[in-house]
Design brief:
Helix content is 36%, strand content 16%. It is of the alpha/beta class and 297 residues long. It has one domain: Alpha/Beta hydrolase fold, catalytic domain (Rossmann fold, 3-Layer(aba) Sandwich).
Length: 297
């Protein structure tokens, strides 16, 4: 385990509202539309493509600092909105399970990253709930997966009996007070800079579309996390894996990442001091340096 003993306070960079979309892209996967963006992908070389996967009630912009850093370093990088999130399809489907999202990711990699753009290998970088989906993908050992980066995630969110009850109560509250609860999240994001959460503001050009996660995807996300348990299967993950967690993460506490590290054979754990669940935003420079070194190793 690599525990950084420093008090570095990274600037929150870059600003999502300064990013202009050059081209909107949609993939038709499992009979729905998945919105995605990519850079440095038009002329594939021997390098692997990088795919960023966001977490619960988030969207592609949650990992925006990392996306820009990878672009500036000339890596071929893709990011997408999971079904029910961001600008991906939210209507005409009610299946937002981890398994179907894992299948979406697998088909997106095979049809878009490999089939359309011509890459042979993929490095998956996933945050929070997205890390659950990435674990399910890696457990199946797809031949295209070269490396895996898991950020602030868990193999079993309700690892203590009382947490299953807490999740159940949380789900009931969300069902009854969906928008009230959703809007309260704005306060938690404010210290990080609302520019990274453009659904709360008016600066980001959404072309009339909302970035908010739909009701069914929000509720099923909680239900999925309540029952998710990949611990008995993580020994099947054979690719090199980097696990990153913030020391002060209360959404995915350090014990979750330690357990994943114990169970994945070829894994490295990095704990970033004074960072919370949004370590890619609050400690953008530190997180990127570890990810870059892992990619290049």
């Amino acid at each position: 385990m690599n525990f950084l003993n420093n008090t570095e306070q990274n600037s929150i960079h870059p600003n999502a509202t300064e990013y202009e979309i050059q081209k909107e892209r949609y993939a038709h996967i499992n009979n729905i539309q998945i919105y995605y963006e990519c850079e440095n992908a038009e002329q594939p070389d021997d390098r692997s493509a990088i795919l960023l996967i966001h977490g619960w009630t988030a969207n592609r912009l949650r990992l925006h600092p990392l996306y820009i850093q990878l672009i500036e370093a000339k890596y071929p990088v893709f990011r997408l909105d999971l079904r029910g999130h961001g600008w991906s399809q939210k209507e005409a489907t009610h299946d937002f399970s981890f398994n179907i999202m894992k299948d979406d990711i697998d088909k997106f990699i095979q049809t878009i990253i490999i089939g359309k753009y011509g890459f042979k290998k993929v490095i998956v970088i996933a945050h929070s709930m997205g890390g659950c989906i990435a674990q399910l993908l890696a457990i199946e050992q797809p031949t295209y997966l070269e490396k895996l980066v898991l950020i602030a995630t868990s193999a079993n969110w309700a690892d203590k009996p009382f947490l299953k009850i807490i999740y159940w109560l949380f789900i009931q509250y969300y069902k009854s007070h969906f928008w009230k609860k959703y809007m309260k999240k704005k306060d938690g994001h404010e210290p990080l800079g609302l520019e990274h959460f453009p659904m709360w503001g008016t600066k980001y050009n959404t072309h009339g579309r909302t970035l908010f996660t739909c009701f069914h995807a929000t509720i099923q996300g909680l239900e999925n996390m309540r029952i998710f348990d990949a611990r008995k299967l993580l020994h099947n993950v054979q690719v090199p894996t980097l696990i990153i967690v913030g020391e002060k993460d209360i959404d995915a506490p350090l014990r979750y990442s330690k357990k994943i590290h114990d169970l994945i054979p070829n894994s490295e754990l990095v704990v970033i001091p004074e960072a919370n669940h949004d370590v890619v935003i609050g400690k953008a420079i530190t997180a990127y340096e570890h990810i870059k070194n892992f990619i290049n190793s």
